[in-house]
Amino acid sequence: MNPRLGRWERVAELPLMVSAIIFFAAFAVPIIWWPSTPDVVTATCEVLVWVTWAAFAIDYLVRLLLSEQRWAFVRESWFDLVVIALPVLRPLRLLRLV
Fold it and tell me: How far is residue 16's CA from residue 2's CA, in Å, rounded to a whole number?
């Protein structure tokens, strides 16, 4: 493995795990409080969902760029790509870390 890629993955692991938890909470809060969710809470949760999506997308792109064999990376990291494409699956990334 590329040492720079390994270093990135070690540094990004905890922030991405926290991002997954934040996403899960931001996704769930409006559903749990529905229909009486205050507009400010809904807006805040929407922003948090987009910010966490961006964090996962940036992580994937950085890992792709740091990979020596990019097609092999895409084949091996297909689940991460699905998580970016389908935001509802983002909390499942926690399973990968376990």
Answer: 20
Q: Are 57 and 16 in contact (CB under 8 A)?
A: no
Summarize pLDDT for 43-70 with one digit per residue, the tens. Answer: 999 999 999 989 999 999 999 999 999 9
Place of tokens 């987009």: 50
Whole-structure pTM value: 0.78
Buried b / exposed e across 21-56, counting CB within 10 Å, b at 16+?
ebbbebbebbeeeeeeeeeeeeeebeebbeebbebb
Give the residue carrying structure tokens 């996704």.
27
In the numeric block, the tokens 């409006």 are attached to 30
Identify the CA nearest to 93 among candidates 2, 28, 18.
18
